[in-house]
Amino acid sequence: MDENRITGTARNFGGKAEEGVGRVTGDAKTQVRGMADEAAGAAQDLYGQARDTAADAAFGDLCLTSFDVHSSFVAHHKYLLRLRPSMLSAYEQIVSGR
């Protein structure tokens, strides 16, 4: 298993916890940071999955079709794009450094 999968999953769970803390305390910045970490963790996990898949395919253990790759990409993309509109302005403020 690729180390990016483990690290990404850990970051995803940490982001979920941080988002929860932000929600409970009413701190929008903490909540958005948690959501960003969660998304980054999911992306890192997806990268690790892609590396694992490529390694498996290189050794002939797995026959991967373009439909499988596309379906996986779409599913993870929908997950990454789940920022709630109410959090988007806070996220943009953090990114812009305000």
Your description of this structure?
The chain has four helices and no strands. The protein is mainly α and 98 residues long. The chain has one domain. α2 (28-58) packs antiparallel against α3 (66-80) and α2 crosses α4.
Give the key terms.
elongated, mainly alpha, 0% strand
Overall pLDDT level: 76
Counted by DSSP, the helix tally is 4
**Please, what is the oligomeric state?**
single chain
Q: Which percent band covers the strand fraction?
A: under 5%
Structural class determined from secondary elements = mainly alpha
What's the structural domain tally? 1
Q: Summarize the amount of helix as a percent range.
A: over 70%
Order of helices and strands: HHHH
Our measurement of the CA-to-CA distance between the termini, rounded to an integer number of angstroms, reads 40 Å
- What integer value in Å does the Rg equal? 16 Å
Shape category = elongated
Low-confidence stretches: none
Number of E strands: 0
Largest sheet: none
